[in-house]
Amino acid sequence: MRTKLNYNPPKDDGSTYKIELEGISVDIMKEILDYIFSGQIRLNEETIQDVVQAADLLLLTDLKTLCCEFLEGCIAAENCIGIRDFALHYCLHHVHYLASEYLETHFRDVSSTEEFLELTPQKLKEVLSMEKLNVGNERYVFEAVIRWISHDSESRKVHMKDVMSAVWVSGLDAAYLREQMMSEPLVREIVKECNNIPLTPPQQGEAMLASFKPRGYSECIVTVGGEERVEMLYFMNARHNFGVVEIDGILYILGGEDGERELISMESYDIYNRTWTKQPDLTMVRKIGCYAAMKKKIYAMGGGSYGKLFESVECYDPRTQQWTAICPLKERRFGAVACGVASELYVFGGVRSRDDSQASEMVTCKSEFYHDEFK
């Protein structure tokens, strides 16, 4: 992809020569030249693939980044499979991650789209093998396979057993299967072909747990802090009374103290690459605060420093790598907990000193919430 240049060296008579760029249309090349001189380009769903291909060929990293941001905003049930494959081909790692996450989260919607029905058997198995498919019940995966086979039953029945090997049949209810067999001939064929599908009453107790691992969870527990170091998870700086937030597979460690001083620093750990990275400092020293992620942003709230309690709230955007102050809490507090749901932040509990008494007397704070759209 990076060597599609036909180079004709100059002739002995001094005549001019030309370099031909193959695979880039005249219209796309004109847009890219305009971008190089103006720094602006208009992207749309009709031309985005051509622009990405050209930016990749010409090593235009900034333009490729703009295309990634555009593609991330386009991800939907109808196109996430295509965007995921396209992103993998051109090494758009974050786009691929987000498209995969969308596919896992909205599998039931995706499985009814034309893209899903047109998957090759190999690609279908790859999708069905995802452990984090948000289905709740394996019957929805089984029904997706039925739809895929029915879309072209004559040519796809031969792949029936291979595709069904990716379905977690131990999670299928026997009574449900028997009911489907009575009303759907294709289901009878599948059950006959795949002799590992359960038609007997389910196992009980430990036997059932041993045979079935539900989708949508990962066998991973991250323990942060403590008295000992854990291999591959060394902090860049030792600390306690800090906050931890996760966004897109990145753990962010914020604030706290190291035993000698209170900290304003933030560092991140990439779970997949197993690397630590220094991140921009908070706007203020903050320990025993509460922290939450909402809409791909980090919120640091309350806490305190050197005996003073805060009601301040600051927001960090990993894209811009900038902290921004937003409207404060209604009560200053430390030791609270927080979580983000859709466009709302919820802050629960925590304590503060009474306004009308000695600082040694503490009261429990009320819960409150913040809506991102109202700011």
Automatic annotation (TrEMBL):
<keyword id="KW-0677">Repeat</keyword>
<dbReference type="InterPro" id="IPR015915">
    <property type="entry name" value="Kelch-typ_b-propeller"/>
</dbReference>
<dbReference type="InterPro" id="IPR011705">
    <property type="entry name" value="BACK"/>
</dbReference>
<keyword id="KW-0880">Kelch repeat</keyword>
<dbReference type="InterPro" id="IPR011333">
    <property type="entry name" value="SKP1/BTB/POZ_sf"/>
</dbReference>
<dbReference type="InterPro" id="IPR030579">
    <property type="entry name" value="KLHL16_BACK"/>
</dbReference>
<dbReference type="Pfam" id="PF01344">
    <property type="entry name" value="Kelch_1"/>
</dbReference>
<dbReference type="Pfam" id="PF00651">
    <property type="entry name" value="BTB"/>
</dbReference>
<dbReference type="InterPro" id="IPR000210">
    <property type="entry name" value="BTB/POZ_dom"/>
</dbReference>
<protein>
    <recommendedName>
        <fullName>BACK domain-containing protein</fullName>
    </recommendedName>
</protein>
<feature type="domain" description="BACK">
    <location>
        <begin position="80"/>
        <end position="182"/>
    </location>
</feature>
<dbReference type="InterPro" id="IPR006652">
    <property type="entry name" value="Kelch_1"/>
</dbReference>
<dbReference type="Pfam" id="PF07707">
    <property type="entry name" value="BACK"/>
</dbReference>
<dbReference type="GO" id="GO:0007010">
    <property type="term" value="P:cytoskeleton organization"/>
</dbReference>
